[in-house]
């Protein structure tokens, strides 16, 4: 087992404030890792740091992002994009935005394939595309390939996005909210697609999701993020059976309350995720926490509960 991705003490800021503070996260070979938390906690910005897609006014000013031991932040843009395109597949949250509306699916898949295989014939690319789409549960593949994205359902576009991400053999698949904006029936189908991918080989996964039911079924390990900082991490069993941080407990409780609407965005907790002050050492959750006390305003150390289970909390 080797390490595919590691983020060490990562700090990201824009012109006004710190967005991510001291992020430590790793993904091992063949491992499925989930990053969970409310909107505004910094999950998507963490992915954008990996993918070299930070907004123009943002920068990663401390720490490292390592892909198989190579520093992505230390590469120039061209070299970094080459590594990412060759080894990392990405499925964006908004499939309508990542698929070109004026190009048929077949053209987009062919263009994507020939970037890695410049001498590939169109028939070779289309055969690979057909094979992937069938694997991802599509029956009317030729119609999908001859369609424009706007002619497809949300579930079909999600499958096309996954296929584009996996056209070549990848080491890591990154997915941002892979089941959001889908109805319950299609959501379950897409979940099954990811479960089939997970069972099929060595591919590692990093998933950002509000759907804790999906995370519980698929993930090996879970990182809980709040206000730009990891507040708890552990195996899936540890996080869901023995959560320690009050924020983790609240997310799980809210998710279980709304089982009938599984996959919807997490219900709101009282208060809001702070946008500023994230670099301060005290607990950012203290204003919303029913158990907060004087110790929560002191610098917090990470407590090691087991070799895999860690929490940033005084409880």
From TrEMBL:
Major subcellular location class: membrane
Domain ABC transporter: 5-252
Keywords: ATP-binding, Cell membrane, Ion transport, Membrane, Nucleotide-binding, Translocase, Transport
Enzyme Commission no: 7.2.2.11
GO cellular component: plasma membrane
GO molecular function annotations of the record: ABC-type nickel transporter activity; ATP binding; ATP hydrolysis activity
Subcellular location, record wording: Cell inner membrane
Membrane topology: Peripheral membrane protein
EC class name: translocase
SUPFAM superfamilies linked to this entry: P-loop containing nucleoside triphosphate hydrolases
UniProt KW Chaperone keyword: no
Family (UniProt): Belongs to the ABC transporter superfamily.
Subunit organization: The complex is composed of two ATP-binding proteins (NikD and NikE), two transmembrane proteins (NikB and NikC) and a solute-binding protein (NikA).
Protein name: Nickel import system ATP-binding protein NikD
